[in-house]
Amino acid sequence: MFQAAAAAFSDRGFDGVGVDEIAAIAGVNKAMIYYHFTDKLELYREVVRDMLRDASVRVTAIAESDRPAPLRLETFIAAFVEMADARPWFPTLMLREMAEGGPRLDPDTLVLMRSVFVAFARIVQEGQATGAFRSVNLVLAYMSTIGPLLLNAARERAARQPGRSDLPMFVEVPHAVLAAHMQQVALDMLRIKP
Amino acid sequence: MFQAAAAAFSDRGFDGVGVDEIAAIAGVNKAMIYYHFTDKLELYREVVRDMLRDASVRVTAIAESDRPAPLRLETFIAAFVEMADARPWFPTLMLREMAEGGPRLDPDTLVLMRSVFVAFARIVQEGQATGAFRSVNLVLAYMSTIGPLLLNAARERAARQPGRSDLPMFVEVPHAVLAAHMQQVALDMLRIKP
DNA sequence: GTCTATAAATAGATAGAC
DNA sequence: GTCTATCTATTTATAGAC
Would you state the pLDDT for residue A163? Predict the structure, then answer.
């Protein structure tokens, strides 16, 4: 049921999805939504939290592994691609929430978002400490890593709309190619310059 | 008046902004909106088109200049940062429209979006032809270039929400630093590997 | 061209039976 | 826990005076 609601919110946003519609795709009555959640906002928050919890746990485990930092960075990126594969609504919902400035994010959700960033930052900083990575602005490095992943997911969705397949920017890109490209760019960004 | 509507749509999305509100910030009566536009959707489309027209003209001029490709690429990125500076609603509105899969984009707008991508692709391809750039997937290179720029604009907006200033991922990053970082990453991505 | 007033549809939310 | 029916507020859109 969360999946259905998440996909709908991801498609059309908080204001674009009615509680009626969520009830319909969840196969329950609208009154049931209000029996389980105080209001639409709380339902939305629970959907976003649920989604971010998984992402947080996963990338934190990657960051805490004892493998070399460059390898952990590659795994971090691969994990994002896999999550986007398994749950297509994840990147666009996250992207939309960011685009809105996150006015509906509660403190718990912010902590989860923070932990994803912290996992990334930890990998980069440990790579710098061992001399594998050069010095960079951590926030911008983070933007450079997940920005293209999120935007590409949006691009894929836009490509699925009717009458788009002929446009060159909407060509299909296999996720293996995507992951390889993103790993390469991230490592290029952090590599010590000769 | 377009600016006011654009800023509102950028903040809260198509469904999040009422025609009443647009009329109010534009300082006119709601009936005036419907006198000038057939409906809310057409107004929205005109806002997006107007915004993209400027961007398209600007980056096309950069792509058509006769300077070396790496320099044109740097200018392309600097132009994006400047546009985001001058019109803060531009990146988030574009990002949101992408995140939604662009279901409201009309053919004219798609042509404009296409022309921005084409300008980028032209710079990269000409750089490849002269041996300055290595071979890459053009679409992914585009995602890697504008994705972080758009996401960072969203990050900046999110940072302006109350109670966010203490979170490490919401630290302020000067736009000069942003531009320099993005130019560096783009050139690293395209540089011929040793 | 610009306004007031209002129609018509939709959305969030709740009451109350079972 | 689950439903039907309904209330209330909001929203898109228009009619019609000036």
Answer: 83
Nearest alpha-carbon partner for A91 in A52, A45, A41:
A52
Which of A90, A134, A135, A88 has its CA nearest to residue A116? A90
Q: How far is A15 from chain B (nearest CA, A)?
A: 6
- Cα B145 to chain centroid distance, Å, stands at 11
In this prediction, residue B2 carries a pLDDT of 83
Please list every residue in chain B whose beta carbon sits closer than 8 Å to the beta carbon of residue A161.
101-103
DSSP string, chain B: -HHHHHHHHHHH-TTTS-HHHHHHHHTS-HHHHHHHSSSHHHHHHHHHHHHHHHHHHHHHHHHHS-S-HHHHHHHHHHHHHHHHHH-THHHHHHHHHHHTT-TT--HHHHHHHHHHHHHHHHHHHHHHHTTSS----HHHHHHHHHHHHHHHHHHHHHHHSTT-TTSGGG----HHHHHHHHHHHHHHHHSPP-
* Domain spans, chain A: 47-190
CB contact under 8 A, A150 and B152: no
The CATH T-level fold of domain A47-190 is Tetracycline Repressor; domain 2 (1.10.357)
Q: How far is A26 from chain B (nearest CA, A)?
A: 21
A152-158 average pLDDT score: 96
